[in-house]
Amino acid sequence: MKFQNIELPIGNNSKTQMMSKVTSLAILIALIFIITTLSCSLFSYPSLLKMNKYKQPVFAYDDDSKEPESLPSTYVNKCDIFSGEWVPNPEAPYYTNKTCWAIHEHQNCIKYGRPDSDFMKWRWKPNECELPFFNPLQFLEIVKGKSMAFVGDSIGRNHMQSMICLLSRVEWPIDVSYTNDFDFKRWNYSSYNFTMASFWAPYLIKSKQVDSNGGLFNLYLDEIDEKWITQIEEFDYVIINGGHWFFRPMVFYEKQKIIGCQYCSLENVTHLPMHYGYRKAFNTAFSSIISLKNFKGITFLRTFAPSHFEHGLWDRGGNCVRTKPFRSNETKLEGTNLELYRVQLEEFKIVEEKAIKKGLKFMLLDTTQAMLLRPDGHPSTYGHWPHANVSLYNDCVHWCLPGPIDTWSDFLLEMLKIESLRSTNRETSFA
């Protein structure tokens, strides 16, 4: 900025002193402006005040780079990223309950006194390659101008809240929900025009709670839940999940007639196994997605994440008090968990073939094996204060944040990178 000499009827010394004062005043004003701007930024984004206290993973590129430096190793090596072991990662976690407001109270384990912290300090190591840490910058560049929906139960919401915390190192989202209903939330990352949403649908299909205590549900196996299916047509990515609600007593309907039940004592009603209703629910959900006229997005099936109740069922004193992961040779998927997982894989294979014929893509986000090995990652009793007047069971279903569920975003980003690469190659081949 250039200041003009001010001609006054005074001597040369006075003129010099006046110019010095004007220059000093200009510098002071500039400093005040800079300090004020920085202060506003910090108070507008409080995470900036805290983020340097926690180690950040080394990213493949910085803010100015738009592409990864090289092809994903998992793509080059044709590696199965879902088969592996948990190995120590002393640098984790990359956020805390004090730096992320998105953590649900019931998964805020450190806040409510969990005494150990090692459960946060592991990473997933595939058997034949390395799985890169979640890179929020790279993720937001890939999904720029797009949208992603999480459809299913509260584990899906658990996943979305984990992702919000991981992305908070770059940007906080703005609530753009169409309703005040906590079960149907939408968040927008304005700098990237990326929208993320969660739609509550624990059964995926139409259901009705029969009693006020949530002890019995009617499931309409051939009717989709309209609350979510009518909203996903606009989304680029849809992540489907479901499982834990199917352990409840249920009455099954098809064509508006009772065909059987599960864990019920109704007279003259056929008892059907859990996997019957589970298979029908996914079949109806997948069929409804590929029947949408304007849906062009990618659908991910996020596979069942087993619970880890020991010494009793969830409603009979079962708990999860382990503090370390299993090794892959220390446990195995079996019983009902194995049955549900097989149903998901079988229904996925069926819809994948149908989707290809319609020009749609289904992808398998297979978290089952990794999460089977993490009995240490659940809230247990640390989802509330020890003597709080709450009617909650020990939680061995959801996942502490930070915690092992953060790895799901590692998986998802790697899949998105590979899909982005394949899409680019397809476009190049047709050019």
Automatic annotation (TrEMBL):
Keywords: Membrane, Signal-anchor, Transmembrane, Transmembrane helix. Residues 131-415 form the Trichome birefringence-like C-terminal domain. The chain crosses the membrane at residues 22-45. GO terms for cellular component: Golgi apparatus; membrane. It is found in: Membrane. The keyword Transmembrane applies. InterPro entries: TBL, TBL_C, TBL_N. One of its GO terms (molecular function) is O-acetyltransferase activity. Residues 78-130 form the Trichome birefringence-like N-terminal domain. It is a single-pass membrane protein. It comes from the Eukaryota. Belongs to the PC-esterase family. TBL subfamily. PANTHER family: PROTEIN TRICHOME BIREFRINGENCE-LIKE 19, PROTEIN TRICHOME BIREFRINGENCE-LIKE 9-RELATED. This is Trichome birefringence-like N-terminal domain-containing protein. It comes from Canavalia gladiata (Sword bean).
